[in-house]
Design goal:
The structure holds 2 protein chains of 2 kinds. By secondary structure, chain A is mainly β. Chain A contains no helices and 10 strands. The chains are: A mainly beta, B mainly beta.
Chain lengths: ~110, ~120
């Protein structure tokens, strides 16, 4: 991901709606991408990963989309729940080396 | 699987003292562990890569004499903040992976406050 400064983007969604969190990365050689969820005061938690030979991967309520042409990654969360409120980070790497983390997006789920 | 444990979860120390943080891989062996630092509302910044049985590799700008890393076994890496000062106050997080090309798994971090 691209760490672009001190501003932490925030996304607010209504409970039950779908969430889409976006991430840009800069290394065109990156071939492995991960989304992490970080709750306050805790370490990042693995959500889902995708390799460059795929453009979409689905998990439980989450989908990651990869667009290598524009170096863009997105995380879709279906039926967002209060427990999804956290900061979400993307990370990219080349063959699992030197992960680069994005600036993060704070997801707030409104009741 | 792939559980990483970090201890302590928080520590308060006086300026000038040293603090040791432990990172353990509980159910796998990790030849490589990673230490990150995170400031409030910011992303993770890699400090160093800890290699079992050899010297750690530090990122540019990280003082190796201040942040001592020891990786004495395949399941334990330690980070010692020497002669801590208030500007060292931060959230320190370790991570490990089961192998190259595998995701990083993180500990729950250590909140260091230097008074």
């Amino acid at each position: 991901g691209e760490s672009v400064g001190l501003h932490l983007p925030t996304l607010s969604v209504q409970e039950g709606d779908n969430s889409i969190i976006n991430c840009a990365y800069s290394n065109s050689a990156s071939d492995y991408f991960i989304w992490y969820k970080q709750e306050s005061g805790k370490g990042p938690q693995f959500i889902i990963d995708i390799r460059s030979n795929m453009d979409k991967r689905q998990g439980q309520r989450v989908t990651v989309l990869l667009n290598k042409t524009v170096k863009h990654l997105s995380l879709q969360i279906a039926a967002t729940q209060p427990g999804d409120s956290a900061v979400y980070f993307c990370a990219d790497s080349f063959y699992g080396q030197n992960f680069v983390f994005g600036p993060g997006t704070r997801l707030s789920v409104l009741p | 699987g792939a559980v990483v444990s970090q201890h302590p979860s928080w520590v308060i120390c006086k300026s000038g003292t040293s603090v040791k943080i432990e990172c353990r891989s509980l159910d796998f062996q990790a030849t490589t562990m990673f230490w990150y630092r995170q400031f409030p509302k910011q992303s993770l910044m890699l400090m160093a890569t800890s290699n079992e049985g050899s010297k750690a590799t530090y990122e540019q700008g990280v003082e190796k004499d201040k942040f001592l890393i020891n990786h004495a076994s395949l399941t334990l890496s330690t980070l010692t903040v020497t002669s801590a000062h208030p500007e060292d106050s931060s959230f320190y997080i370790c991570s490990a992976r089961t192998g190259v090309g595998s995701p990083l798994h993180f500990g729950n971090g250590t909140r260091l406050t230097v008074t």
